[in-house]
Amino acid sequence: MAKEVLFVQGAGEGAHDRWDSELVASLKRELGDGYVVRYPRMPSEDDASYAAWKAALVSEFNSLEEDAILVGHSLGGTILIHALAEQRQKPTFGGLFVIAAPFIGEGGWASDDIDGRNDVSAGFPPGVPVYFYHGADDDVVPTTHVHLYSKAIPHAVVRTFEHRDHQFNNDMSDVARDIRSVG
Questions:
Q1: Is 135 helix (H, G, I), strand (E, B) or coil?
Q2: Residue 125 has what pLDDT?
Q3: Looking at domain 3-182, what is its CATH homologous superfamily?
Q4: Helix 50-63 vs helix 75-86: angle between axes, to the nearest 10 degrees?
Q5: Which helix (H) or strand (E) holds 43?
Q6: HSE value, Cβ hemisphere, 13 Å, CA-based, for 59
Q7: How far apart are CA 124 and CA 128, in angstroms?
Q8: Would you place residue 38 in the very low, low, confident or very high pLDDT band (cuts 50, 70, 90)?
Q9: Which residues pair with 37 in a beta bridge?
């Protein structure tokens, strides 16, 4: 049976079809036949609302198989982290992989929509692998954000890559390798 992967897109006009679809295509190629990648369209991608995206994610969580892999890009990764941290009934998942996510809170970005939390890992089930990825050439989210996440989630593995941009140069080979290593 194929392992299930949920990919949460980033925000912005055209993010689902023009931008993150390339990341998903790369991830599918790199993971191969043993994985099924789900790529739902998030509501109002050009004007992302935390409440609307969280509701969509909770619905997705409820339909995932146990030990599914969660992947989030950019603001989708940020919302994924915060939605998981706030869940009362924790979904069981096999790993969290976040690419180029802005950190909301002290030292990161302010948000009227998302409360800054430095304790996001308190909401994760124990023992779940967490990986963060960031490109040194990201001109959308500064690299400092991935280091803020490493402080907020001390057990996370943080990988930074030279010559990778916000879209990770549409190369998900490193992410796929880590996904295969945990599941």
A1: strand
A2: 74
A3: Alpha/Beta hydrolase fold, catalytic domain (3.40.50.1820)
A4: 70
A5: none
A6: 10
A7: 7
A8: very high
A9: 5
